[in-house]
Design a protein that fits this description.
Layout (H helix, E strand, L loop, with lengths): L8 H19 L21 E2 L8 E5 L2 H4 L16 E5 L7 E8 L5 E12 L5 E6 L2 E8 L9 E8 L5 E8 L9 E11 L2
Parallel strand pairs: 1-2
Antiparallel strand pairs: 2-3, 3-10, 4-9, 5-8, 5-10, 6-7, 6-9
Length: 195
Amino acid sequence: MRNNEGVSVKGFVAITALILLAAGQAASKEKIVNGNFEAGNTGFSTEYTFVDTCGQFGAYMIAVDPHAVCDAWPDMSDHTSGAGLMMIVDGATTEGTSIWSETVKVQPGQTYNFGYWAATIDGPFGAALQVYINGVPVGDLLTLPAQYDGKWYHAKLQWTAGSKRRATITLVDTVTEGANGNDFVLDDLSLKPAK
């Protein structure tokens, strides 16, 4: 298609659409590889042990429903779609144990929004989750209720990258007591440049 001056409008529209698409993707560029766990047990590191059923402290599972891996845990859908995967955590009894960690590329001086969703699946102790970036605690603790209430809780914070081009983001549960309980789920971890 050409306009009345003989210039191809179709090519112009296609190039403009690509430029706008690229700009939109750059503005919302997700840095976390598998924050919704839909790719399974990949894209992150942890000091917890990967298992396929409950009963081991300091262990985790990737599944569609906590009840599917432990009869004592409730039926609960993931936060992303209601039908996907989530990280199911049987709380550790050792202080400072990394539940989830990922090293990502960042732009020095850029401000980022980090967030995640969590919910209690078993008490009597609710998790108290702390985010660390490059070994430094950032943001407030997300303290989950002591008992399952069927709700997802959102934690979010802003962080500005220093001079380094990489950031290691780590999530730690500061609650280490309880022979039973302190069990929770995680989903939709995200790090994006602030607008």
